[in-house]
Amino acid sequence: MSKNINLQLGWPSPSLFPSSHLLDGASNVLNSSKKTAAALVYGPDAGYDPLRESIAKWLGSFYLPSGGISSERICVTNGASANLGNVLARFTEPGYTRNIWMIEPCYFLACPIFMDHGFQGLLKGVPEDEEGLDIEYLRRSLEASEKEASQQSPNIKTGDRYAKMYKHIIYGTPTFSNPSGKTMSLRRREALVRLAREYDALVITDDVYDVLRWPADEHTSSAHLGTPPPRIVDLDRTLDRGPKDEWGNAMSNGSFSKIIAPGVRVGWAEASPALTLALSTLGSNRSGGCPTQLTASFVHELLETGTLENHLTDLIIPTYRTRYHAMMKAIGEYLIPLGFAISVGRAYEESLLTYKGGTNGYTNGHTNGYTNGDANGHTKSIAVAGGYFTYLTLPDDVSSRGAELAAIALSNLHLRFAYGDMMQVNGDDGSIERGKEGYGKGIRLCWAWHPEDEIVEGIQRIAGLIQLIRS
Ligand SMILES: Cc1ncc(COP(=O)(O)O)c(C=O)c1O
């Protein structure tokens, strides 16, 4: 029997886990009585302070927002999933909060988190186009939702404890999205912030893949990458002279799951200091302290010593980059000729690197694309790839049979992949309908779990599957 190949699983492969670095981090903490005392008590509500500081510094050096990032904007979480539930508990109430707007196709595992917080039947999909979320669709839907809304105040969550309730939640992954692989353009990001302010919405973004980026071209050096797309939370700080009120309209949900390992269960939230404080004083944190205090102290050691950065630069990014290219080449060789198409939208092209020529080197600027220049100062755009996933449109003759193809692949070919219908927004008939003509005709593939030869073998099995169906 051939080996199982799982191109569905969005997990980092165990061979990439930095276990020895974690062991060093753990030793640094547990061999120091001072650090141990801080790591093994109930943690502060907002989490292990040294980690809040080191995350703020690390994010500031990556996103380069003007004014840097202060640690009062950060609280430590036990991962993006758990924190999503926390935000809902603190800032929403079904009824007052009219709808949850999920970028569609959606990260399907988020649907039950919203449902657990009372939003069953209130989830609504917002389609994507080549630039990411369809902002005009969202505007029309928010307007309609407001017209329908009957209750004007929270029913149960009242008083000082719930000083802020949002009327809408908008949820998605703007950069290297799971599942679509798309990255939202800058103008869409800005429009989204303005829309959120207009409709009293909190935009929650799972910014969990942002740092995993490389040039889409195999032969272009990573040194030519520009500044990453600003997060929605970065834009909310500065756009049109900053947030509307002390709460702001955006929260970034960060995680070490994809860049260290999911089992560490450490993540962070970034938002306005007011929102961060209210989030971190959730009842369960007040009673139990930070939900991941000991591991947070180990992760801090990895950040503080630069070990995580080296791990990403030396191992994780080059490995994913190589796997990505192996997958793309195999798709080009075996699937495109069968009628598949890659549909990950337009590459993000707002920030750029301009080569000044001579000895001046590279500088950041803002025109039309990531560029790298020749010695004469000429520039050309480069596309940026990253994250974990690519999305393929199925050939026309089988495009409505994604679920069936996935079932046959599993039973006959020992191969798993995720198919479009899995990414429907739960309970939204519109999302199901749109899927039939859009994302439902696709499949999602992940390059993070298997090494190159198994990725290629998996793609070959998909080609074999299509040939089998057609025969
Ligand atoms: C978009 C998105 N959000 C959240 C998660 C899970 O994050 P965590 O492990 O921090 O709970 C994943 C993992 O697949 C994801 O793709």
UniProtKB/TrEMBL annotation:
InterPro entries: Aminotransferase_I/II_large, PyrdxlP-dep_Trfase, PyrdxlP-dep_Trfase_major, PyrdxlP-dep_Trfase_small. Gene3D superfamilies: Aspartate Aminotransferase, domain 1, Type I PLP-dependent aspartate aminotransferase-like (Major domain). This is Aminotransferase. Pfam families: Aminotran_1_2 (PF00155). CDD domains: AAT_like. SUPFAM superfamilies: PLP-dependent transferases (SSF53383). One of its GO terms (molecular function) is pyridoxal phosphate binding. Keywords: Aminotransferase, Transferase. Residues 38-308 form the Aminotransferase class I/classII large domain.
